[in-house]
Amino acid sequence: MSSLPADYFAVFGISPSLALDLPELQRQFYVLSKQFHPDRFARASAAEQQYALDFTSLLNDAWRVLRDPQARGEYLLKSNGFEAGDSRSNPPPSELLEEVFELNMALEELRHGDGEARGAIASALERFLAMREALDADRDALFVRYDANREPETLRQLRALLNRRRYIENLVRDAQQALS
Amino acid sequence: MAYSNKVLDHYNHPRNVGSLDKSDEHVGTGMVGAPECGDVMKLQIKVNPETGIIDDAKFKTFGCGSAIASSSLATEWLKGKTVDEALAIKNTDIVNELALPPVKIHCSVLAEDAIKAAINDYKVKQGAEPLVQAH
Predict the structure, then answer these.
(1) Number of domains in chain B
(2) Which chain A residues are Cβ-neighbours of B36 within 8 angstroms?
(3) Which helix (H) or strand (E) holds B54?
(4) Are the beta carbons of B31 and A96 separated by less than 8 Å?
(5) Which of A7, B74, B86, B94 is most buried by its number of CB atoms within 10 A?
(6) Which CATH number is B20's domain given?
(7) Could you report the per-residue pLDDT of A137-172, keeping only the tens digit for each?
């Protein structure tokens, strides 16, 4: 019995990379899901049944992470020793925190304002969405660059970008909530 | 996940929300954040120049209930302490007081970092050497 793939990329038979062909990945996901569906192993040995179960579970995790560019980037950073979640060893830059803090303050003031604040929140949301869109374009460019050069410096830039995007994503969510 | 009563109390009735004059030489400001959850926390202390005791502490946190409760509790504890006593506050003290579950321990770490950052800012303003950071 072979052992399980070493990482999420290996589940799909690819080497760790960031600029993925999502439609192709999805196709592979369906193929593998079918191939390893536990129902197909009902008459197999106990070890094979267990493998099908473990593989399917790993496949689902891998698909969930790799389909999402943010999660995919964070996963690859982590497997390269960049602890995206460790804000202690690499605190976010203070300019970013100041900016996010100010944006949050403005949003909160608007939210507690009267009905006229709606327009202001809507335009703040427009701004956040534009920021997110710009970050997404930068992220995709970094993905391509990393796949080509495999340089730690590119990963450092990616980590900074993904951290920033998480904050912007929260602001988008908060603004949308305030408007709903 | 259920929040403890103490977390809920601080979340619903946060103490010391607000801000102090950042440019005041007796005020130290700490701004920290955790990108993984999108939290950003500002914590400020005002030190009495005569006594060296922290007279006032304020915070403003954008984040989850545990992050708000951790920083709210931190400001309560800071008031009346000397700067050195304040430095002794550990995130584990906050975890114990608020009964934070393991997945929320990082919120208490953030609060401890905010305290240290605020004290550091104050010390630098006073012309002292900056603290050696934990990171």
Answers:
(1) 1
(2) 84-85, 87, 166
(3) strand B54-62
(4) no
(5) B74
(6) 3.90.1010.10
(7) 999 999 999 999 999 999 999 998 998 898 899 889
Locate A45 and state its tokens: 């040995």
Non-local (6+) Cβ contacts of A78 within 8 A are A84, A85
CB contacts of A90 in chain B (<8 Å) are 135
Question: Could you tell me if B8 and B65 are in contact, meaning their C-beta atoms sit under 8 angstroms apart?
Answer: yes
Are A98 and B31 inside 8 Å of each other by CB?
yes
State the maximum Cα–Cα separation within chain A, in Å, rounded to a whole number: 67
Please report whether residue B107 resides in a domain. Answer: yes
pLDDT at B38 over 50: yes
pLDDT at A46: 93
For residues B127-131, give the mean pLDDT. 77
Nearest CA in chain B to A167: B38
- Give A20's Cβ-side CA count (13 Å radius): 27
Please check whether residue B131 lies inside any domain of the structure: no
Tell me if residue A48 falls in helix, strand or coil: helix
Cα–Cα distance between B75 and B94 in angstroms, integer? Answer: 11
Query: Given an 8 Å threshold on Cβ–Cβ distance, is B33 in contact with A170?
Result: no
Is the pLDDT higher at B12 or at A133?
A133
Local structure of A177: helix, strand or coil: helix
Nearest to B74 by CA among B107, B37, B27, B103: B107
Question: What average pLDDT does the segment B49-72 reach?
Answer: 94
List the end-to-end C-alpha distance of chain B, in Å, as a whole number. 30
**Residue A72 pLDDT greater than 60, yes or no:** yes
> Domain A8-67 falls in which CATH fold?
Helix Hairpins (1.10.287)
Q: Which residues of A touch B (CB under 8 A)?
A: 84-85, 87-92, 94, 96-98, 100-101, 104-105, 108, 162-164, 166-167, 169-170
Q: How far apart are the first and last CA of chain A?
A: 53
